[in-house]
Amino acid sequence: MKEAKKLNISRSLELFEQAKQLVPGGVLGARKPSDFIEGEYPIFLEYGKGCRLIDVDGNEYIDFLCGYGPIILGYREEEVDEAVAKQIRDKGFCFTLTQRYQNELAQKLTELVPCSEMSIFLKTGSDATTASIRIARAYTNRIKVMRCGYHGWHDWCVEMKGGIPQKFYEDVYEFRYNNLDQLEDLMKQHGDQTAAIIMTPFGHPLHQKMEEPKPGFLQGVRQLADKYGAVLIFDEIRTCFRLRLGGAQELYGVTPDLAVLGKGMANGYAISVVTGKKDVMMAAAQKLFISSTFFPNSDGFIAALKTIEILQRDHVLPKIWERGNRFLKKIQEIINKYPVGAELSGVAPMFFITFKRDQGETHRGRRDDFYTQLIRRGIFFAPHHHGYINYRHTDQDLDITANAIDEAMAYLNEKYKVD
Fold it and tell me: Residue 231 — φ and ψ, nearest 5°?
């Protein structure tokens, strides 16, 4: 199988050299070149539409990162953008006091999300997870937290501990997804001091295979929270409005006390939510302070209301599941053809292609070669993060992608001489 031609990303590299003189590291967080494959992926994008992106060098991609999750409909979704533009033109969006759209969105959430009785609106996922922990601690008058999954960049949960005193996270204990025994052991030790169990109800650990809950796992976590009087928080930043309108809690039938929502709710506009049972949520009104200049801005409310309207009106999620299931079936058939150690995990709306670890550590080379061949063929996945399907991915887009995956797998099979 012929190797795909390397992309011209000279303008991206030039801008990155400039950026390094202006911004620490050039770009921050999960958008660093080292989080992709250096020298192969673009660093700066110019514009997008639907499911396609154009970088500053003019290369076009079918995108499966979807802005790391917020783009559930598509880039530059005209109906959503026009609703926001109209709000800005006709009424404005940043005021001293709150506009009424807060109430409309809170009411909509109570209709859709099983645990939702009251809501607080913020801007980012990290805002929401941190606020949920503060609420749980105020409600229970306890300190300790059990956590499972990625919950953002704030002191109590960030993976890289640089700049953070140990005392800021010393009361936070981690357990593995689908390992109920591990959580039970932790609760036996710390349960009477535990304010919250916070977890992603669908397993999407960093850089690893995705996992659905084993039978009884989420129910077991719910029972442990009840037994010890801890607040159960589902981090549904990625899953709500993507797996179901009501999130993984609707899909799997286990209701938490609080949930944090964001990403796909507003198709790219900045808004997040802590929502949940009234008695727990009222701690936010009585015992603590949560405030920001920009939390009440109505551009996010308007975008969320319009996005949810479209999701419901056009039956978006069932269509994503249908297309995605067909696509994942094709991917699995391709993986079965080539014994290169590739594995497919996840579900139709969000999935991941990883490579089995081996003693010779060749899985790293296979992974990087695979994703290099995809980006050179105009298919934008990330080697360390799962992909998403949005509403504007057509069957043709998915067929083009499946063909590129087939070619990339064939290239690996030949390069690594797998029989």
Answer: -80, 125
Instruction: Confirm whether 3 is domain-assigned.
Output: no
In a domain, residue 2? The reply is no
Residue 1 lies in a domain: no
Judge contact between 169 and 155, C-beta under 8 A.
yes
pTM of the model: 0.97
Q: Do 165 and 154 lie in a common domain?
A: yes
Question: CA-CA distance, 240 to 250, in Å (whole number)?
Answer: 9
Q: Are 269 and 183 members of one domain?
A: yes
Domain match, 54 and 82 both: no
Q: Do residues 95 and 296 lie in contact, with contact meaning Cβ atoms separated by under 8 Å? A: yes
Token readout for 274 is: 């802590």
3-class DSSP assignment, residue 231:
strand
Report which of 317, 337, 352, 299 is spatially closest to residue 414, judged by C-alpha positions. 337
Structural domain contains residue 32: yes
Interval 212-221: pLDDT, tens:
999 999 999 9
Report which of 319, 379, 385 is spatially closest to residue 68, judged by C-alpha positions: 385
Looking at 268, 290, 313, which one is the last position of a domain? 313
Burial (CB count <10 Å: 0-12, 13-18, 19+), residue 367? buried
Nearest CA to 377 out of 66, 61, 67 is that of 61
Q: Are 68 and 126 in contact (CB under 8 A)?
A: no
Do 234 and 293 lie in a common domain? yes
pLDDT digits (tens, 9 = 90+) for 291-325: 999 999 999 999 999 999 999 999 999 999 999 99
74-104 pLDDT, tens digit per residue, is 999 999 999 999 999 999 999 999 999 999 9
User: Of all helices (H) and strands (E), which one includes residue 352?
Assistant: strand 350-355
What's the CATH code of the domain at 368? 3.90.1150.10
Is residue 412 within 8 Å of 6, Cβ to Cβ?
no
Pairing of the two strands 45-49 and 52-55: antiparallel
Please state the rounded mean pLDDT for residues 185-214.
Answer: 96
Q: How far apart are alpha carbons 105 and 413 in whole angstroms? A: 51
Of the listed ranges 193-202, 249-258, 408-417, the one predicted with least confidence? 408-417
Domain extent at residue 331? 10-75+316-415
Residues making up the chain, counted from first to last = 419
Give the residue from 313, 336, 359 where a domain finishes: 313
